[in-house]
Inverse folding.
């Protein structure tokens, strides 16, 4: 599955638009992470536990979006983006979304 953030893919043409696809995940930080983050915020710097959690969440959202596109018989996703938000005080939502398409190589 080819996933790009652009509208066009060099060397390919879009022959069919399947429609919008997305993958979503909601993760909770947990009490231990909140305590460590609170302590780290006093001195500044990167909070590596949160960085790792968000990297994992983005990967999972991307994988779910690709699975959705595969189920639509697409072979590429164009205009891919991420969005994120907070739910409550200790949950993060990550969404990967784009447009599932069928592409063919230009001859």
């Amino acid at each position: 599955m080819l996933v790009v953030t652009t509208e066009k893919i060099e060397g390919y043409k879009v022959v069919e638009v399947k429609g919008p696809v997305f993958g979503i995940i909601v993760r909770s930080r947990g009490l231990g992470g909140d305590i460590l983050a609170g302590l780290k915020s006093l001195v500044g710097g990167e909070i590596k536990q949160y960085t790792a959690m968000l990297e994992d969440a983005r990967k999972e959202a991307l994988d779910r979006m690709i699975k959705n596109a595969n189920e639509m018989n697409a072979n590429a996703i164009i205009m891919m983006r991420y969005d994120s938000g907070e739910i409550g005080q200790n949950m993060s939502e990550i969404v990967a979304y784009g447009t599932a398409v069928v592409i063919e190589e230009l001859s």
User: Anything to note?
Assistant: The radius of gyration is 18 Å.
